[in-house]
Amino acid sequence: MEFVAQSLLVTAVVWPLVLLALCAVPGNVARITPWLATAPLPALVAAFVSGGRFQALSPSAVMPFNLTITPPGAVLLGVSAFLWSLAALDLPRRLADNPHRLRFVTCWLLTLTGNLGVFMAADVQAFFLFYAMASLSAYGLVIHEETVEARHAGKVYIGFALLGEALLLMGLVLLVHNPVGGSFQIAEAVAALPDSPWFTATLVLLASSFALKLGLIPGHGWLPLAHSVAPAPASAVLSGAILNAGVMGLISFVPFHAELPGGYGLMVLGFATAFFGVAVGLTQKNPKSVLAYSSVSQMGFIAAVGGMGMSLGAIPDAVAITLPLAFYAAHHTLVKGGSFLAAGIAEVRGNSRFAPWILPAVLIGPGLAGLPFTGGMLAKVAVKDILGPGTPALLATVSSAATACLMTFFIFRLAQKKAAPGPGGGTMPMMTAWLLLALSALAAPWWFHALPGTISLAKALALPELWKAAWPIGLGVLLGIWLGAGDRLPRLPAGDIYQLAPALDGLLRCMRARIETSERFLRRWEVSATILVAFVVLLALMLHAYRG
Length: 548
Hints:
The protein is mainly alpha-helical. The chain is built from 26 helices and 2 strands. The chain has helices at 2-23, 29-32, 41-50, 71-87, 91-95, 101-118, 124-137, 139-142, 148-176, 186-192, 199-214, 222-229, 232-242, 244-253, 263-281, 287-311, 319-349, 359-368, 375-387, 391-416, 428-448, 457-460, 463-484, 503-509, 512-522, 525-547, and strands spanning 55-56, 67-68. A two-stranded antiparallel sheet has the order 1-2. Helix 9 (148-176) packs antiparallel against helix 11 (199-214), helix 17 runs antiparallel to helix 18 (359-368) and helix 18 packs parallel to helix 21 (428-448). Residues 501-512 have low confidence and may be disordered.
């Protein structure tokens, strides 16, 4: 069994890179594209087989990093791999005869490898490499359409990504060089972090980096811009799976076992982001923009739960916090990934208000808010004990109503979407993926609940609990119907304050010509691909050499 576990961990990282290497053969990318759906399957099997029960793979010539699967990592790895596989089903159709197919496939596989690797990284070098690989490679997914909006979103995205990488690198350096217990092993370094003389600085740097990845205000600007312009399969993984890298960062690097400062501050920031995302999402017309702001809101709620977990003080077992966080994020992955695919179908086909394939959204949308008897209800119950009574519980109730309102509003925007001009093509692969994800969002949490430390079904299905969950969602749905059926709110562009700041153009005007010249050079595929691959290889070699 140990050999099987080690083989799965190796294959989970190596198989996407094998497909990437095969793409380097001239004219081979068209034959590789249908195989993209298989790239995440070894990781999916590894998550399913492990259940968080094994640690495997010490550094070797084959894999120079420590890899492991913890219980929260298994949950996030499994659902993320599942989403990546289903999202890839439509890529052969979508990329047929596309002039940027090679660039997209290369960035897809690098982002996939980095994203899944984050959930398995057991040492600092592996985490940083995979985190950077996922963040930087995703730029190619954002700009794929080559529209003015996509290019602008790409610039904003890469700026935030580089800032996040810089903060993460500084935090990891302080973590590793802790004079009272620094280590390259994440578990050992985090256990010793509370005794570090640089404890506060380390925690702030790491938390700030993960806050940017999660899209907490005011660092949220990249998320609605990038997720709105990317192709539907890319939007699905950007919003559904890649955001989980920030969740995994909080789970892996916050020492919940110790007395931590700043927990209430993170909670306040999280709830502020949750309500901000809903408020601005209700001003959007594009269904994908609505979903992007819903992701901002949901990541804010996860951050608020994490903040409350920090404020609980020393607890015997941090899994009591980290596993419910992973559970909630996993449900969000299934709902949001599927919803972005549904929006992609709407772009191709257009809709009538009662199109049958929209119907699952009627369940999984309010389910994200905790609708009784859906998987979302279990996800909400899982984090309820962390929030506790009082003001946090009240804010969580209001947040559920707000989420129900926004997702109902999304359903109306989806039903009103008209097909984009141009050939539509078949959408059966995307419809299949959407329906499977919708079904999984409803059913998978009922399987996850058996994991130790999550929830009690008897408690979740008690009549008082069902009523507490139902009435805020009912109010939210009614408000969402009222807002969605009319045009009652002003329109804000996706990106809100980052689109409404003309001063940025003034600051760059004097440098615009040089920037555009440099950008044209760097955007040439042979240049950008060489730089990207060289950066990843160089970073891996430097980290491996430094570790030695």
